[in-house]
Amino acid sequence: MKQGPWRSVVLRVAGFFLLWVVLTGTYRTDLAAGLVAALAATWVSLRLLPPSIGRVRPVALARLALRFLRQSVVAGVDVARRALDPRLPLRTGFVVYPVGLPPGPTRHAFTTLMSLLPGTVPAGLHSPGALVIHCLDVEQPVTAQLAAEEALFAALFGEPHGNG
Amino acid sequence: MADFLLVAASFVLATVAVGLVRILRGPDKADRIMAAQLLGTGGIATLLLLAQATSVPAAVDVALILALLAVFISVAFVKKGVIRSQMEGA
Amino acid sequence: MALDAVLAVLVVGVAVWTVAARDTFAAVVGFVAFGLLVALIWVRLAAPDVALTEAALGSGLTGGLLLGASTRLGRTEAEATGELPGGLLQFAAATVSVLVSAGLIALVLLLPEPAPTLAPKVAANIAATGLQNPVTAVLMAYRAIDTLLEVMVLLLALVGMWSLAPDHLWGGAPGRREPADPDGVLTFVAQVLLPVGILVAIHIFWVGSVAPGGEFQGATIFAAMWILATMAGLANTPPVMRRSLRLLLIAGPAVFFAIGLAGFAIAGAFLAYPADYAKLLILIIEIPLTLSIATTLALLVAGPPEQEPQR
Amino acid sequence: MSLALDALTFLAVAAGGFFFLAGTVGLLRFPDTLSRLHALTKADNLGLGLIVLGLLFQMEDPFAALKLVAVWLLTLLAGGAVTQLIAHAALGGRSAGVTT
Amino acid sequence: MSIAILYGLCSAVLVGLGLFALITHPQPLRKILAFNLIGSGVFLLFGVVAHNGAAAGFGGDPVPQALVITGLVVAFASTALAVALLLRLFQETGRATLQSDD
Amino acid sequence: MIEPLLMPGSATAGGFLLVLAVVLPVLGVLLSLALGGRHAERIALILMPAGLAVAGATTAAVWRTRAVLQYFVGGWYPPLGVAFRADGLSAVMMLVTGLLICGIGLFARVQFASPEQGEGRAPFAFWTLLLAIWGGLNAVFLGGDLFNLYVALELLTFAAVPLVSLDGRAETIKAALRYLLFALLGSILYLLGAVLFYGAYGALAIVILSGRVRAEPVAWAAIALMTAGLLAKAALYPFHLWLPPAHAGAPAPASAILSGLVVKAPFFLVVRLWFDVMPGQPQQAAAQILGTLGAAAILFGSVVALRQARLKLLIAYSTVAQIGYLFLMFPLAVKPVTGHPWSTFAWTGGVVQAISHAVAKAAMFLAAGLIAEALGHDRIARLAGIGRALPVTVLAFGLGGLSLMGLPPSGGFVAKAMLLSAAVSEGQWWWAVVVLTGGLLAAGYVFLVLARSLADPVEPLRLSATISPGRQAVVLALALCAVLLGFVPLRPLELLQIGRPV
Q1: Given F36, F155, F202, which is nearest C156 (Cβ)?
Q2: Rounded CA separation F45/C103 (Å)
Q3: What is the mean pLDDT of residues A148-160?
Q4: Are residues F149 and F138 in the same domain?
Q5: Could A27 and C234 be called an inter-chain contact, meaning their C-beta atoms sit closer than 8 Å?
Q6: Among D6, F406, F176, E65, which Cα is nearest to C137's?
Q7: Phi/psi class of residue D92: alpha, beta or left (left: φ > 0; alpha: ψ in -120 to 50)?
Q8: What is the pLDDT of residues D64-76, one digit of tens each?
Q9: Is residue C91 less than 8 Å (CB to CB) from chain F?
Q10: Chains B and C touch (3+ CB pairs under 8 A)
C-alpha cells in the first residue's frame, strides 16, 4: 500500500466531483466550484477516515452490489409478507453472530448493509467479536446467511474473512 | 402522468400519516425516534414524486436535505434523548 | 388537491399532538415531524427556497436544540405538568385562541386574490443584480439591509447566550464535550456522511444564485454537519475567546459592510452594487457570510460555555 | 414508446406505494419496537427505491435521473446506519437477553 | 377551494393552537415550542400571500418568501436564546418554571 | 406608472447620516466581537461621541431643511427597496438616545471596567450589547419599512434581554426569560400584522401604505395585531408583568437603558402606525381603549410602586406608571376637535413625556444604583443617612422625581401640562383626573424615598463602597437635563412637526 494514500485521495476527489456533477447537473454545472467542493469534501473525509482500507476490487464490488439489490428487494418483500399476513408470522428474537471483520469502518459498513438485509437488524455488541442481531424470524438460518454475506463483503478487499 | 404521480404522492403521504400516529404514541422513546426515519423516507418519496409531477426540480434538493437531516435528527434523538437520560438515570 | 388536503390535516394533527402530548420529549418529536411536513407545504406553495430553510433550520436545527433541552430538563419538566392551570384559564385561553383563529380565517378569505405583488418589479430589476434566483435577489440586493441586520441578530443572540456563562467558565468551550468512540456506529455515520453533507451544503449554497438555495440553507447544513461531528465526539467546540473563531464569526458581516460601504463610492449608495460587478460582489459577500452564519448557528445550538477554560 | 415507459412508471410507482403501505401496516401490527424498526427500514427503503425506479423512466435529463439515484443511495446508506443506532437505543444500550 | 385558502386556514388554526399552548402550558419549554408553532402559522400566511402574488413567471411573489427566510432565522435565534436562558435557570435553581417563588 | 427603481445617489442631501447612525454602532459590535477584551470598552467609548455627532448632525439637517431626510438603501426605491427616513420625531428621539447612551456609558465605566488582562464576561457583554442597543434604537427610529422595523425590533430585543441577566443571579435569569417570551410574542403578533398589510396592499413601506390603506377589516386587524404586539414589548398594563423584575434586576446602567430607552421603541412604533400608516381613519374607540389601558397603568403602577420595599423595584413600577402617560396621547390626539392630530398638545405632550421620562428615569436608576452600591442593599426602610453620605446622588434622584410628578420646572411638567390642557380642550376631562392622580401618587413614592434618605440614621451609616464624585456628577447632569427640558421654549417643538403628513 505504498502509493495507497495518493490513490485513495485521487479516488475520493474524483468520487466527490462526480457527485457534484450529478447534484448540480440539473441546474448548470460549475466545474470550478465543483472542484473546490470536492476538495473540501475530500479534506473532511481524509481527516475523519484516513485511507487505510486497501484497494477495493471492482468485480467483487459489482457482485456485492447486485446481491445487495436483490437482497434488499427480498427484505422488503419479506417484511411486507409478514406484515400483511393475517396470522402475523413473527418469531422475533436475538442471535449472537461472531463477526470476523475487524472493528471500525469496515465492520460498520458491513453492519449497515446487514440492517438492510432480510430479517436482520444489528443492535450492538455482545462481546468484542460478537454482534447482537435482532431477527424477525429466528428460525431462519440467520447465521449461515450472514456468514455468506460477510464472505462476499470480505472479498471486496481481498482479505480472508474470519468466519466459517 | 402528472395526475397519477400526485395521487401516488398523496397515497405515500397518507401511509406516512398513519405510521406517524402509531410511532408518536410510543410508548418507548425509541419508537418515537423512528419518526424522523419514517418522515425522512416517506417525505423524500413524496417530494420526488412532486418534483416530477409539478416540474419543480428544486424539490429534489429539498429531498436531499431531508435525507441528511433525517440522519442528523435521528442521531440527536439517540444521542441526546436516550443515551444521556440513561446516564443520568432517568 | 387530495395531496394538499392530506397534508393540511396531517400538519394540523401533528401540531395538536405537539400541544397536547404530556411528555415533552414526545412533543419535541412531534414538532420535528411538524417541521418536515411544513417543508412539504412550502414546496406546494411554490416556495422551494423556504422549504429548504424550513427543513434544515425550522425542523432540523431547532429540533436538535429543543431535544437537547428537553432531555436536560428531564424529570423537572414532567413534574411541572403538575402545575396545570385551572379550568377557567384554560377556557379563557381556548376562547381567545378560537377567536383569533376565526378572525384570521375571515381575513384569509378576505385577502384579495390575485394579491398585489412585487413579483413584476423583482423581475424587471433582476438583471441589475446578476442573479437568476429572485429570492436571493431580494435577500442580497433589494433588501440587503434586512439580511445584514438579521445576521447581526444572530451574532447578538450568540453574545447574549455566551454572556449567560458563569464567570469562571468564561473563555471555555461551549456545550459539553462528548466522548469519542472510534469504533462506534456513530463515528462511522459521521465518517461517511460528513463529507457528503459538506458537498451538499456547498451545492445548496452555490446554486442559490440561479436556483432555490443560498447562504442560509447551505450554512444550516454546514452547521448540522459540524454538530453531528461534535455529537460523535470527533470534534470539540472551540473556546469562545479564540481569536480565529471570533474572526470567523464576523468575517461575513464584515465583508458585507465593507462592500456595502464601498457602494457609497462605487455605486452611489450604501449596499448598492455596480451593475457589471453585482454578481461577483454578491458572491464575494456570500462565501464568508455562509461560513459566519454556519459557525453562529452551530454555536447557538452548542449553548453557553460549559467547559473549563484552559489557562 | 412513451406509453410503454408510462406503463413501467405506473407499475414501479404503484409497487413502491404498496411497500410504503406494507411498512405502515407493519408499524401498526408488529408487537415490539425492534420489529417495527424492521418494517420501517426495509419496506420503506424498497418503496422509495421502486418509486425512484419508476421516476427514472420519466426523466429526460440523465443528470436529473442520476440525482434521483443518488438521493436513494444516500437514504439507504443513512437509513442503514441510523437503524443500528435506533436499535441500540431501543435495547437501552445494554446487551439483550440473547438466544443463540 | 384553492390551495392558498386551504393553507391559509391551516395557518390560522396553527396560530390559534400555538396561542392556546403559549397561554396554558406552564413549562417554559412548551411555551417555546408554542411560540414556534405560532411562528410557523404566521410564516405560512406569508407563503399564502406569496402564492396569491404569483406573477411575472414566478410561482410566487419572491418578496414575502425572502422575508420568511429572514423570519425563520430570527425565530431560530430566539429559540436558541430562550433555551439557553431556561437551561441556565435550571442549573441555578434546579427548577424550570417561571412561577415566582415568593 | 413606471418608476425607475434603481437610481444611484438617490437620497436627500445628508441622507448618508441615517446610514451612519445605524452602521456605526453595528460596526462597533462587530469590532468588539472580533477584538474582544478591553477593546470592547474602548470601541464603545470612541463611538459614543461619533454617534452623538451623527445624531446631532441629523437633527441639524432636519431642522435646517425643514424636510424629511431620507435614504434609499442600495439605491432601491420602495416598495422593492428599504428606505431610512428621519422626520423631526426621529431626529429628536435619536438625539435623546445619543445623549443618554453617552451619559450611561460614562457612568458604566467603573462598574463594567475591563480587566487589565484577558476578557471579562460582563464587561465584554455589556459594551457590545450597549452598542447593539444603540444601533437597534436608531434603526427603529429611522426605519421606513414595516419588515425592516421588525428586524430592528429583534435587534433591540436580543441586545436588551441579556443585559437583564448580566449578573447571573437566578432571579435575573428568570426575569430575562420572561421578558424574552413576552418580547417574542410581541414580535410574532407584529409580524402577523405586517403580513396582513402586505397581503392586502402589496407594500411594507410606511409612506406607500399610508396612501393605500383604506378603512376596512384587514387594515384594522393588522393594526390591532401590531399594536397588541408592541404593547407587549412596551409593557403597557396588563402586559407589564415582565417589566418590574427585569428592570429592577438588571445592573443599574442596564436598567437605565432598558427603562429609559428600550421600552420607548415599541411606543414610537405605535405612534408611527397610528399617525403615519393609518392617519385619518376612524379609530376613536380603539384610541379610548389605549387610553384606558394607559390610565390603568398609571394608577396601578403608581399604587404598587408605593408599596415596594426595594428602591429599584419602586422605580421599575414607576416606569410601568409613566408608560401609561404615553398612551394618553392616543384618545386625545387621534381625532382632535381642531387641527391635525400631530399639531395637538396631546401629541406633542406624549412625545415630550417619552423624552423627559427617558432622561429622568435614567438618572433615577443610576442614582439608585449608586445608593445600592454604597449601602450594599436597596431596602427603602434602611436608607436613612444616605442623603448625608451621597447628597449629590440623592439630589439627582429628587430632581428626576420632580419630572415624574410633573412639577415645574421639569420636562415632565411640560408633558403633563400639555396632556392636561389637551384633555380639557378635547372635553375628555377624565384623563385630566388620571394625570393629576398619577402625579399625586408619584409625589407619594418619590417623597417616601426622599424622606427616608434624609432622615437621621439610628446608628452611624457604614458604606460598603465609596462612590467617586465623577459618577455622581454624571447622574446629576442627567437629572439636570430632565429639569432643563422644562425650560425649553416651545419653538423647538416645531422640530417634532417636520415631516408630518399634511
Answers
A1: F155
A2: 50
A3: 77
A4: no
A5: no
A6: E65
A7: left
A8: 899 999 999 999 9
A9: no
A10: yes
Query: Is F199 in the same domain as F77?
Result: no
Here the CATH number for the domain that contains residue E50 is 1.10.287
Place of cell 443618554: F100
- Quick check: do C and D touch, 3+ CB pairs under 8 A? yes
Domains of chain C, by residue range, sit at: 1-84, 85-116, 121-311
Q: What is the pLDDT along chain C (311 residues), one digit of tens a residue?
A: 789 999 999 999 999 999 998 888 889 999 999 999 999 999 999 999 999 999 999 999 999 999 889 888 876 655 555 556 678 888 999 999 999 999 999 999 988 877 899 999 999 999 888 899 999 999 999 999 999 999 999 999 999 999 999 988 988 899 888 888 777 888 888 888 999 999 999 999 999 988 898 899 999 999 999 999 998 888 889 999 899 999 999 999 999 999 999 998 888 889 999 988 999 999 999 999 999 999 999 999 999 999 988 76
Q: Give the range of the structural domain holding residue E73, as residue numbers without chain letter.
A: 3-93
Rounded Cα distance, F386 and B39, in Å: 66
Please state whether at least 3 CB pairs lie below 8 Å between chains D and E. no
Q: Enumerate the residues of chain B whose CB falls inside 8 A of the CB of residue D75.
A: 40-41, 44, 67, 70
Farthest CA pair distance, chain C: 65
Test A26 with B57 for CB contact under 8 angstroms.
Answer: yes
Q: Are F163 and F134 members of one domain?
A: no
Query: Structurally, how many domains does chain D consist of?
Result: 1
Contact D86, B27 (CB under 8 A): no
Query: Cβ–Cβ of A37/C203 closer than 8 Å?
Result: yes
Q: ∠ CA E43-E48-E50 to the nearest 5 degrees?
A: 95
> With an 8 Å Cβ cutoff, are C189 and D85 in contact?
yes
Res C227: pLDDT? 93
CA angle (B50 as vertex; B46, B56 as ends), nearest 5: 135
Where do the H-state alpha helices sit in C111-214?
119-125, 134-137, 144-162, 185-207
Among candidates A132, A137, A60, A41, which has minimal Cα distance to A95? A132
Residues F314 and F410 in one domain: yes
Rounded Cα distance between F84 and F141, Å, is 9
Listed as ranges, residues in chain F with pLDDT below 70 are 1-12, 280-282, 489-492, 501-502
Euclidean distance between the first and final Cα of chain F, in Å? 24
Burial of C53 (0-12, 13-18, 19+ CB in 10 A): buried
Which pLDDT belongs to residue D97?
40
C59 min Cα distance to partner chain A (Å): 23
Q: Which domain-ending residue is among F85, F113, F144?
A: F144
pLDDT digits (tens, 9 = 90+) for F243-288: 999 999 999 999 999 999 999 999 999 999 998 888 766 678 889 9
Whether F502 maps to a domain, the answer reads no
Mean pLDDT score of chain F: 90
Number of domains in chain F: 2
Residues F369 and F241 reside in one and the same domain: yes
Query: Using one digit for the tens of pLDDT, what is the confidence trace for C34-77?
Result: 999 999 999 999 999 999 999 999 999 999 999 889 888 876 65
Residue F400 is part of which domain span?
A: 145-497
Nearest chain A residue to D20 by CA: give it. A80
Q: Is residue E13 part of a domain?
A: yes
**Residue E100 to chain C, least CA–CA distance (Å):** 13
The complex's ipTM works out to 0.94
DSSP F39-74: HHHHHHHHHHHHHHHHHHHHHHHHHHHTS-EEEEGG
Domain count, chain E: 1
Which of C199, C200, C226, C228 best probes binding to A when mutated, by most A CB atoms within 10 angstroms?
C199
Contact F203, F79 (CB under 8 A): yes
For residues C76 and E90, give the distance between their C-alpha atoms in angstroms, rounded to a whole number: 9
Domain boundary pick from F93, F112, F144: F144
